[in-house]
Structure prediction request, 730 residues.
Amino acid sequence: MSGNAMRLQAIRDVEAYVPPAVSFTDAETPGQIFGENVFSSVVMQKRLPKLVYKSVMATIEHGAMLDPLIADAVASAMKDWAMEKGASHYAHVFYPLTGLTAEKHDSFLEPVGDGTALAEFAGKTLVQGEPDASSFPNGGLRNTFEARGYTGWDVTSPAYVLENPNGNTLCIPTVFVSMTGEALDHKTPLLRSQQAMGEHAERILRLFGHDKPAKVVSFCGPEQEYFLVDRHFFLARPDLLNSGRTLFGAKPPKGQEFDDHYFGAIPERVLGFMMDTERELFKLGIPAKTRHNEVAPGQFEIAPMFERGNIAADHQQLLMTTFKTIAKKHGMECLFHEKPFQGVNGSGKHVNFSLGNNQLGSLLVPGDNPHDNAQFLVFCAAVIRAVHKYAGLLRVSVASATNDHRLGANEAPPAIISIFLGDQLADVFDQIAKGPATSSKDRGTMIIGVDTLPQLPTDPGDRNRTSPFAFTGNRFEFRAPGSMQTVSGPMVTINTIMAESLDYIATDLEAAVEAGTDFDTAVQALLTQIITDHGAIVFNGDGYADSWPIEAEKRGLANLRTTLDALPELITDSAMDLFEKYRVFNHREMHSRYEIGLEQYALTIGVEARLTLEMGSTQILPAAVRHQTEVAINVGAVKAAGGEADVAALLEVSGPISQLRTALAALKEALAAETGHSADEAGALAEAEHARDALLPAMTAVRAAADVLEGIVADDLWPLPTYQEMLFIL
Prediction:
């Protein structure tokens, strides 16, 4: 199908679009269906024996050790509930180091001797599964011939039923570990880190007079940005299909220059998709809250409410799967790549972090007078210290070949990690550095000048979109994670560095109190010391300014521009000791993450390089040559007729074609020089460096020539959907 034909078909689909009938009815409101497919505490209370229910809730709410004797009762109730909802199979769902979701489905039916079958689901089956572990990324933790791995039931994340037109499946969130107990997934370290952070947060709460504080957990509210493109265009772009981003594409005449897409009216087709996805998310207990157009054309955002960190991570994975599935129903493809289109804003996944418990709520709420709120100031100081001391680990937690296209541009935070506190908190900590804080900037009032409008309260500080780690009123927003990433990685790092910082603070205050120092005096001395030693991380200015990297260097803040700059942070002695001390990773697990990071980086760029060579050789170059031939024939015909031939048009296309041929030859040579997959860290590093130093520049040269040709070659000959079509035909 030619470019014109694809464009016309896509336009017809948009014009003829009728949203699927998924709207809520009077008998089925959002509140009524919310969580209807979740084996929630409400469902468990109705279906489990009282003592079993209390035991399960003690594990979920208070972190008590799971009693294995209750497993049979829970499994039986879970099976009956799921089968009543049409489930015929169950699956242990886990999150391997691919960053994607993995699952193995098994039937409830067990054959019996008389040729019939019974539905069975034993407690041991609920608690533990055994998928093949040999073919997942492991970074040297496993050999290919060593296939045994275990999944283990995560009781703190509820099971759910996943619907399909042909039958439903009971999904059980699990961890995934090797037979030696080492983490092969993202969930295991997340649970470990959350436990470590909570333990030391509770020590501080006891110092503030909370004798028996409820279990402290981390909370996460991830904002998900994404693009939608018509599926005709997606399937006609091998680069989008295989790598998630366009490897070719000239800048369209109109992009996002007018800022007219941001918060604009949502196109009907997109709104139909959003409503459809939200209905499915509600049924799965995912609290989708906000939807809107993002900055770039074709870009949108959904923001769920805060949840416990491990549940938020599970829900994020489920959300992305749901979006992909529902988009196809509406004739579109959902793109989560951080930079699917060059020259327009990419997509992030802002991780909003807080910590707290069900007694006190969030521990990062400053109140009206934060200068008097010593408990808040201590927890806020813990964040400041943690981010300053372990900025490199935060940077590497968001490092990937795909996110490198986004970080550091004027659309996302710079690669330099810093904290934005806002005017009010920055002023309070400035006072603390010089002595006791005695005041806080008040909220203001905005008078708009229209009599019919009320006076509006204003916050004592503005927001900062350029800051990687910004305080936003009752939480910190980590803006650097990429839209394709699991939130588990950043949350593991935040939890662990917070565990160390809270441990440091609790130990200091406990020692001071034991030595007879007045508690308030000890707190004041500690806060002064922290802001003096770590205040360099606080930056309330413009992170996009050319002067910031210079100032950051003076402050001693690292600028880890690329993934390969950041990855060594994982295997420094201090990083490995930190994660081992708080029992999140051992040294082997840390080295495995480093090696997997190198492998994924090289594999990602290698796939893109081969795609660039294939598309350039088999699609773009032939189209350009056909155009050149048509122009040459026209020039010859005009000249033969005695007219003035347009030789300039022939020269205009000949130059870029020559450049494209040269660039393709150089890329082919660079690919031939690939070092090949290596099983050790040195080999993996060499392969990654080759991808960065040889493949990326060669791909850029091919693209430069091809994008020039896109502006020259006749539209009916150009083989790929253009940016103008993909971004604006929805």
Summary: DSSP finds 23 helices and 20 strands in the chain. The two ends are 19 Å apart (CA to CA). The domain at 34-184 is CATH 3.10.20.70 (Ubiquitin-like (UB roll)).
